[in-house]
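Bumping with the actual sequence this time:
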Amino acid sequence: KKKKKKKKKKKKKKKKKKKKKYIEVKYPTEFDITKEYNWHEKLMSDSNKDHPPGSQFALLKFEKPVTCTLDSILVASKLDVSTDTKQCRIAFSGKLLCPWKWEAEELAKLRIYKRRERVGTVERLQDDYTVIGKGLFTKETDMSQFIGLKVLLDNGLEGTISSNFGTTGKFKVSFVNKIPEELIQVQGGGGGGEGKKRKKQKRTLRSKITLPLKKYVFAVDRKRLLQ
């Protein structure tokens, strides 16, 4: 009789346990009240070059006073999440850097702003140092509050709103240096036969005019325009 070969049982390989990865959290070390801070609706990712670890702050408003020493680490949990679930219950964590009273006068000291901008276009050149712009304002706009504010062209050229032009919302933008000749375009000048006047040439440049502004979140005078 032939002996039956015994099948060797394959040993199950033990699964290697994955090492837990721990992320080092870097908290800001100080809050400088004299500096300006850009407002964000939510925390930006630390992987963003513009927001390296430790460069962002959060302003928290509590319903009741919280007793806590400065430089303490705060950890808040989500009370609406069941303790039986595997979902993370940590809402946020951070270091307490500066206590603040939630009052209008105190909050106004915080220089937190939102970026705003208005965009218009160049209509034509008045001379080598001045352009006429349109589209930023309406004819009802009080131009006095905009005189002296800086604007930018598409190529990065910086100018200043020097005055209004007419009564339809147009305005003048002045530049310290002469506008580069390579940016200037000449339109018209054609036509004109016997007994007909030749059309005047119009010097212009195709560009948007951007007016950057800052709106301070807790400012007492919110109508004031700042850059």
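The tokens above came from a reply further down the thread. The mean pLDDT is 82.
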